[in-house]
Description:
By secondary structure, the chain is α/β, with parallel strands linked by helices. It has 15 helices and 28 strands.
Amino acid sequence: MRSRVVTAAVATIVGASAALVVTITSATPAAAAALSDVVPAPASVQPTSGVTHTIPSSATIHAAPGATEVASYLAALLRRSTGYALPVATAGTAPPGSGISLLLSGADAAVGTEGYQLDVTSAAVVIRAQTAAGLFHGVQTLRQLLPASVESVSVQPGPWTLPGGRIVDHPRFAYRGAMLDVARHFHPVATVKQYLDQIALYKINYLHLHLSDDQGWRIAIDSWPRLATHGGSTQVGGGPGGYYMKAQFQEIVAHAASRYITVVPEIDMPGHTNAALASYAELNCNGVAPPLYTGTEVGFSSLCTTKEITYTFVDQVLGELAALTPGPFLHIGGDEANVTPAAQYAAFVNRVQPMVPARGKAVMGWHQIGASAVQHSANRVVQYWGLNTSDALVSTAVSRGARVVMSPANRAYLDMKYNSSTPIGLSWAGFVEVQTAYGWDPGAYLSGVPASAVLGVEAPMWTETIVTADHIEFMAFPRLPAIAELGWSPWSTHSWDSFRLRLGAQGPRWTAMGIDFYRSTQVPWATASPTTAPPTTPSTPPTSSPPSGGVVNGGFESGSLIPWTGTRCSIVTSPVRSGSRALAGAVTASDNARCQQVVAVRPNTTYRLQAHVRGSYVYLGAAGTGTSDVSAWTPNTGGAFSPLTVTFTTGPSTTSTTVYLHGWYGQGNYHADDVSLS
């Protein structure tokens, strides 16, 4: 994980493009894509010169038995942007002559259990695989071969043209993971599901959820209920925290499964356990529960490894978690147990490890469980997070039969800053730009660890400073696709010069998806232009006249807060930018002083929201049904009013949206004036 003290200063990332519809700047959209433009790079690409396929409005998606779920997923994805009916029909026994076919027969033997074969001719598109997972991965490639606007949530003009040829593709490594820490800052079900949808595009097949740490416990455990109700009641900085009810966790697991992603739950122990220790005094050696913790120090907590109640606790927690988890792994943490004596640490892990296979799972843990005094467990996986290219603990574990998931912090940690000006994230492992994240070989990274012992790669994201879905996107993209390519593509395709071009072509696609990505100067980003989608009839009419432009109570000259609302919001006479009054938000350590109002808007319309703000870490944003939550921030206005601007596009049925301003926990009060929506 991480081994440095961090600060909790956070800023919101600019939602520069929100859910804008995009068109790749090209005279011939059909020719903009090539079979080789895909991320991760396919194993084998055979383009057919001069051949393209344009999906017609009359197209049908043909699904073999066992492929209907993937076909329905593809149909739903394409219908919203193409406007086509795209019925799903059962594939016949004859070779498909038209439409899009998803078949579980006839694929090249090289595709294995997760790969696929994609054939595009002028008449038809055919994806073949041995499993539904393989078909799903083929669909992700198909998405990337279509224009970026296929990702739009509203109907676009097309045409929907694919390059002709054949791709035969399969992964290099079986484990291609992302990790989300929901303990430092809690992230709700909707955010996790959205992240699953995003990472699926890059053929990620595991999501590791870090469910417990010093700052919070995030999963309901029936036998120890205070873990969630008390241990989950806060987070870094003193916010309200939260936890998943079992049904909510199962909702995440089910959504992941629908994207052919397996959830790996982690309960970190014996260290990183203050939330548990605060919830139950008997887990402490002195029998006294410590207070809840909202800071960012590490290595100071430990379960009492000499008490029998500790092992009852662990056994019951793992038992309930295993019952919720269809995947093969339970992650038991094991890192940074700095205050647990080495002998007690080994004794603890040796007691705990057998509890995992007893539930039909394999042990996964941070590489510290590879200590020589810790016994090997069958099918055990150690996750390497160190900074060096050799590690005795990992080598020892591998010599005993363990496999390794590679997550070197100075390469794969998505919470590391890109550079010194990155407004959120940490830097104890150094800055990690895109080329750094891409420029290593997981199969040859650690001396003494052969490629055959490497199960795969994982890109962790620790959330000491990661508070919103927008933060997750900004830190994951574009580095997550870099790690995904290391996990999927054969090393023979590895080329930074090629990757940076293919990655740059993803930019308009992320814009269409509403992904708020970091525009690294190392990458030549493809250009895109915002457009307004063709108007459609909303399902319900607006309740008031939608604004065509102008001020949203922007001068505050009436002296009344209405129509703005907010518990720590007020109208002040100083400082002001224009007129005699402005909006003020009184920020505390636990209240960011959010001020908001609901405004009427038109469906399928792009809006520009602007405000002039004064203060440190001030946010301006918009959110609502059919509108992606998008925001902009400013780190410090230097005592003057400074403009902030957000652009967003409403959905086909959107008639209102919420515009808001807020500060950041623990910062000074902020002020805003001259708010306009146009």
